[in-house]
Specification:
Layout lengths: L1 H12 L8 H10 L4 H8 L3 H8 L7 H17 L14
Length: 92
């Protein structure tokens, strides 16, 4: 049982890479003056894939997720009013 608890503890100690709620994601993108198509193109994905990320229907794969989170953090720094109600921290 100790091994199981250690495995659970290891999972709990991982840093979270939580994305902000969908409405905050969209506000940040719009505040930056970008379309879904422009962001999707930068990520090398179809606009529908990005739309699903933005509205919370799906999550980006790990490589894209880290980059998307970095983009959201950058936008939040540039447009703090657009991220009101959700703080994007290093723990995210």
């Amino acid at each position: 049982m100790t091994d199981l608890f250690e495995a659970v503890d290891a999972l709990l100690s991982r840093p979270a890479d939580l994305l902000p709620p969908p409405e905050v994601r969209a506000r940040l993108r719009k505040a930056s003056g970008l379309t879904q198509e422009e962001v999707a193109e930068a990520f090398g994905v179809h606009r529908m894939a990005f739309l699903r990320w933005e509205n919370g229907q799906s999550m980006p794969r790990p490589k894209h997720r880290a980059a998307y989170l970095r983009l959201l953090k950058g936008w939040a720094e540039k447009h703090p009013d657009a991220s009101a109600g959700f703080e994007l921290t290093e723990a995210c």
